Amino acid sequence: MIGGGTGLPVVLHGLRKKNADITAVVTVADDGGSSGVIRDYINVVPPGDIRNVLVALSDIPQIYKDIFQYRFDTKDQFFSGHAIGNLIIAALSEMNGDDIFSAVQKLSQMMRIDGKVYPAASVPLALNAEFSDGTCLSGEAEITAAEKNIKKVWVTSNDGSKPEARPEVIKAIMEADQIVLGPGSLFTSILPNLMIENVGRVVCETQAEVVYICNIMTQKGETEKFTDADHVRVLNNHLGDNFVDTVLVNTEEVPQDYMDYQKYNEILDQVKYDFAGLREQNCRVISDNFLKLRDHGVFHNGKKVVEELIRLTGRPNSWVVDRYN
Fold first, then answer.
1. 213 backbone dihedrals φ, ψ, rounded to 5°
2. What are phi and psi of 306, to 5 degrees?
């Protein structure tokens, strides 16, 4: 899977239960929260999304996962807001000469990961955006906070080098039976991976089926008023090719007044269904009730999504999961 954010680990956890052969390619353009602070201080690849994916695929006892995920209380000042796992990933990266790829592979062994976890790039990447009014901004958090219509995004590296994925990432994509994008923030979790030139190129070239799990809700500062077809159109336009083969779309209505918009303040409205728009882009459309309601929030039903992905591949023990924030 390729992506980042909170949606990716949910699907990965479900896939692990089905004994799928998983490779997760995880975004390294996050600059918010604990990941952003650590990134600014020691110039390491932001660890938050990697941490969540490692936990989703780990076979260690739950108590160890809870420790790895523990976030220090705001009263702790020095460690305030930092997850222990983020600090461990940063430390291992430094111990390995700032080689985040090797650090994640060693940590994968320690955590008994069922599958492979690959950072999309080995250096921190900055996400850049041009808005419909012609202005530009750099930084994931700043882009989202601007609350403007995004025209396009691209990534740059802090050290001036050309953003590039390691050969292991490219090999995994090319050898996959199925490539899965999402669920996750379109512009800040999924596209940052695809904007790495060699990643975007091989995703278009691969013979594997490319499946996009469309978001259920629109997101403030990113996808306001988007239909499912708009999501796919943005992906295709950024890579200059109708590369998305299949789209999983939720058609179940979110109950009125269920969402807690103060708690989930980045969420707006339910994504509208546009079957004709999807078909125009040569997509196979799979629509179903993929909705899960929890804690007054709206999520994908990981179990149903995983069942559909496995049904699509026809070979439940061989594939790659690619893209989440």
1. -90, 105
2. -60, -45
pLDDT of amino acid 318 = 38
Per-residue buried b or exposed e for 125-156, using 16+ beta carbons within 10 Å of the residue's own CB: bbbbbebeeeeebebbbebbeeebebebbbbb
| Separation between Cα atoms, residue 127 and residue 124, nearest integer Å | 10
pLDDT in tens, 230-245: 999 999 999 999 999 9
Q: Which of 36, 226, 61 is nearest to 139 (CA)?
A: 36
C-beta separation of 143 from 31 below 8 A: no
Percent of the chain with pLDDT over 70: 89
How is domain 2-31+117-313 classified at the CATH fold level?
Rossmann fold (3.40.50)
pLDDT for res 245: 96
Rounded to whole angstroms, how far apart are CA atoms 171 and 90? 26
Whether pLDDT at 37 is above 80? no
Is the pLDDT confidence value at 150 over 50? Answer: yes
To the nearest 10 degrees (0 to 180), the angle between helices 197-205 and 167-175 is: 20
- Asked if residue 295 has pLDDT above 90, the reply is yes
What is the tens place of the pLDDT at every residue in 89-142? Answer: 888 888 887 788 999 999 999 999 989 999 998 887 889 999 999 999 988 888
Strand 178-181, strand 209-213: pairing: parallel
CA 215/CA 83 separation, integer angstroms: 26
Tokens of 276: 């004709």
**Which residues, 6 or more positions from 262, have their beta carbon under 8 angstroms from its beta carbon?**
none
Beta strand segments in the chain, E = 2-3, 23-26, 116-119, 125-131, 136-138, 150-157, 178-181, 209-213, 217-219, 246-250, 267-270, 284-288, 291-294, 297-300
Angle (deg, nearest 10), helices 33-42 and 84-95: 30
